[in-house]
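Final report, results section. Input specification for complex C-07:
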Amino acid sequence: MITVIKPGTKEQQLESLIKWFKDQGLDVHVSKGHYQTVLGIVGDTGRVDIDLLEGLDMVERVQRVSDPFKKANRKFHPEDSEIECGGGVKIGGGSFALIAGPCSVESKEQITLVAREVKEAGASLLRGGAFKPRTSPYDFQGLKAEGIEMLLEAKKETGLPIVTEIMNAEHLPLFEEVDVIQVGARNMQNFELLKELGRTDKPILLKRGLANTLKELLMSAEYIMAGGNEKIIFCERGIRTFETYTRNTLDLSAVPVLKELSHLPVVIDPSHATGKASLVLPMALAATAAGADGLMIEVHNDPAKALCDGAQSLTPARFEQLAKQVSKIREAMADA
Amino acid sequence: MITVIKPGTKEQQLESLIKWFKDQGLDVHVSKGHYQTVLGIVGDTGRVDIDLLEGLDMVERVQRVSDPFKKANRKFHPEDSEIECGGGVKIGGGSFALIAGPCSVESKEQITLVAREVKEAGASLLRGGAFKPRTSPYDFQGLKAEGIEMLLEAKKETGLPIVTEIMNAEHLPLFEEVDVIQVGARNMQNFELLKELGRTDKPILLKRGLANTLKELLMSAEYIMAGGNEKIIFCERGIRTFETYTRNTLDLSAVPVLKELSHLPVVIDPSHATGKASLVLPMALAATAAGADGLMIEVHNDPAKALCDGAQSLTPARFEQLAKQVSKIREAMADA
Amino acid sequence: MITVIKPGTKEQQLESLIKWFKDQGLDVHVSKGHYQTVLGIVGDTGRVDIDLLEGLDMVERVQRVSDPFKKANRKFHPEDSEIECGGGVKIGGGSFALIAGPCSVESKEQITLVAREVKEAGASLLRGGAFKPRTSPYDFQGLKAEGIEMLLEAKKETGLPIVTEIMNAEHLPLFEEVDVIQVGARNMQNFELLKELGRTDKPILLKRGLANTLKELLMSAEYIMAGGNEKIIFCERGIRTFETYTRNTLDLSAVPVLKELSHLPVVIDPSHATGKASLVLPMALAATAAGADGLMIEVHNDPAKALCDGAQSLTPARFEQLAKQVSKIREAMADA
Amino acid sequence: MITVIKPGTKEQQLESLIKWFKDQGLDVHVSKGHYQTVLGIVGDTGRVDIDLLEGLDMVERVQRVSDPFKKANRKFHPEDSEIECGGGVKIGGGSFALIAGPCSVESKEQITLVAREVKEAGASLLRGGAFKPRTSPYDFQGLKAEGIEMLLEAKKETGLPIVTEIMNAEHLPLFEEVDVIQVGARNMQNFELLKELGRTDKPILLKRGLANTLKELLMSAEYIMAGGNEKIIFCERGIRTFETYTRNTLDLSAVPVLKELSHLPVVIDPSHATGKASLVLPMALAATAAGADGLMIEVHNDPAKALCDGAQSLTPARFEQLAKQVSKIREAMADA
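Structure output:
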């Protein structure tokens, strides 16, 4: 850790700061430049209260030089992790997965029909929301336990492992037969929930928060891993910016950055990020070319309502086209 | 609700969309312009799936015209709400409160000493973190239950009501004697926690999330209020932007905007927002002049460590100065 | 244009607003809902002062329903535009271009050497900065006129058309033999410069500003096109967000969005956006798969300094690999 | 300057980097920690190509420790600067100014009337736009030279010095009798314009760009000051964030931060920042309490149009109230 001292700091203040570090069992290397003094702090700096330090009048800037994430860090785990998702499906380490399904589970018929169709079109996991985080308490909050039952029926019929979101650790008993548990963007820093998931052995699909940095996403994975569960799949689903044409701004650099820093797989969700069906295909192809380990695509099927044709959800037919084009991109990359 | 239709949409598609609205019990006013067709949807539009609608190929844009928040809405509750915080202390409706104390509770001696000093300097509530949300699982997570015990001791000694953060609804029994429960920025959209707090009768200090809009903050209050607990105090504590000199960007427009839209009180936390002790005083004065109902100020006392002088936390002496200057501003405003 | 009126507005105020619109030669359709009144304004709404309107106490919200950009608009020009860049090189309408070269022109030898190498590796245009916009007045500002001379020498030797940035309309005479004139991100809304470029017949590579929306980028193109010059190439080079690991956040949705809204070609600059050599290749492939019409890649050659190996600039060897992989992606897409 | 080297970097690479610094006449202090090596670079580091350096594979991070701004820096100029604005009006160093007037100059009658009224209400400078930067080329661009003539008439009648925006250095001859020249947010990094203004001796009101950091604003002032003109007044007018209720997010921390870093005065423009008349008063008071040296307020007068009552522009009557309340706040602060 580096601490840059402001010019004009009194010798006595500086010494009291150095003593404070030493009292915490740390070594301090003092480097006095012509213009500035810099302290290099060596040892277990994880316990140092950075906020306190940065707030000191004499301190210009504080910088950690070693990464605060350990178990998720590629430095200590150079090979890619491959996460087993049930039913023989893997994500990461060369295995690519298409996760498809509707935003919300609506009925047994709906979810089973979509499951069959996306399976045929090339999906390897089924997604569907049973617990729905909604901005308004007056909006539909999902079918909850009943929705999970319906997903399990669709799983039994098609053999597709299922991914669905958890919002409360108390609901964990309902997720016993769920294959992959999703943590939504709004809960990325619900540390109490992360800790509980660290005590399970389920693969966790961890979505990046709307205003979280990639380092914070890594630290949230670390919360789960610190508890013993190392089966994490990252998911980028768009961040908040001033742009208003798309619902969020899909940050595809997340793919190579997370892969540089971590051994864990990265999945992209272009449906939520863009909020527009017409943008899902190009962003899905882009994500694939950027090196993503999988895609999460909203697919909806409701032949009774012509309405849904063209929604943010693709129809199964459009999803099938997407799956084919994604394959072409993957072949081209393997070939290179 | 207004739905703007894209030019070139086929009559048949438009009719199927109109039918879809009508099937949900809504009235549709069609207004065909030279360039564009606009549907005005009237009725209980709260249940309409906006995401689905916006994703339709034929839809250019969807806009709610009435506010989705009801209980927090000033339209239906024109007078300011005044929240009773225990010990006769009130926030809102003309009552202004200084909430002061350390970031974390460290020991019984520390918290009692700070409590005494901030009380003398003019604070009306004591704050202190017992459960600490930390980005890293390896960082200190607070004294937890023990920390709350220490806060209660400080309350007993000084009579100051206490404010402290909750991170998990399961911890509610520990908060029985806590006066005001804080929901941190990272949990602003932890809807499960909000619902549980809606079942209590404790005042809730609800902090704005790092990338949340003011309308979303209002909706999160609505989650708590929908459960029956209408004692909400908003707290603005800085949002994320590209600026790096301050820790976050304090959005003081939040004060007049929230007061325009809602009857609930608004408190400002300049300590967390700026992350620098030297900026706390000017931003506290600015918040007061903008019309805030209270301030939340980090105050730390550790005479043994000269170090802390100048940290993001003010010393009790600097806090006393701040309290005096805030009073002057409030007098000037009352006078105007 | 739609104007949503606040509930509680007096009839007289509403009528004075309607009269105000009519006085400007516009038709007004009034639609009174149960909760809200909405005015649909039809006619040439381009001259209406939106800022004034939005600021009115009685107005809840104003929304244009038709696009304010005309010449750049795909609605009025459905086929893709293909921009001739000199030397038979085209961008758009199926033609894909690799633009490569160093950030700054440093010497005749350097630029000629890089030109030769990138040409061999597959580049179709040469880039190089002669006028450099720098945050600090004390930083190197480029070789200016001399730099352009050097670029022209490199062009003569290799036949590659050249792209270089203009910062001041007074410098236009120096750009007479430049093939494509670049407008940098910081000048995207330098409307005086845009107007001057509208009077030339040079292709303009228009970079998106760091905090500009895609609609604003379209309007800046419109400034140039309104003057008569319709040869615009858009360039996305990253926007500012709270993420700090990458220099900026590359918004690849810009590709399909701009292509949906406009007929003009879109080029991506992954070098500036990410600021890290290791991220250039994956983001270049992603941009290609998203449907970009070209890439702008920083390539530097300095065999004397082993230093430069690994900089944000690729070496010619790494650029050659990139060019090959980009071709594979393009073939895979053509095939689909 | 500090350069943090990645672990695993080969000795030979490190030496070539050290040599590269030394070849530029710089001293290098090497500090090898257990985990990381850090280079402290001493000397005139202003010419080092930071972008190149940061892009190197071996480099983890680069950090300047001394400020890149000199003439604007409070370190080298501890007392506040006071800027003479003509007519005996001063801004900074304890002098506070109210700058008021309409967004655009519309006619001689309008501007003279507003000038008279704002003067009476307490304004010390008159603002009004003659050259208007507009997102769309089809929108009204201002009365240009004619508008400046009208402003000068209003100045002659009232004695108020005038502030108006420049968009093109070629227009400078028209600004000969203008007292303060404004650089708009979109031109904050139009370095060619800044350089030209550095050759004049007019006070420059420099507005912060929509996505620019405060350090960048300081560097833009430095561009003007490096040319010899040290009469700079900063103006914060809101930055872009994800919040949509206000037009921009007014960053009032800019006041104490700029004053900490620089000796130059800071003015706040709450009208443009918020875009809503109802928010102008509270944000004006907040700015004053934060320590601003002046306010820039849109005031419009059109008794014929009841319409304008309530626009983002205040009426002269509401401006007068604002002026009085601002005075009260200033007295309260002087008193403290």
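The first helix of chain D runs from residue 11 to 23. The interface with chain A takes residues 2, 4, 7, 29, 31, 33-36, 38, 40, 42, 60-61, 63, 65-66, 75, 211, 240-242, 244 of chain D (CB under 8 Å). This concludes the modelling results for the funded period.
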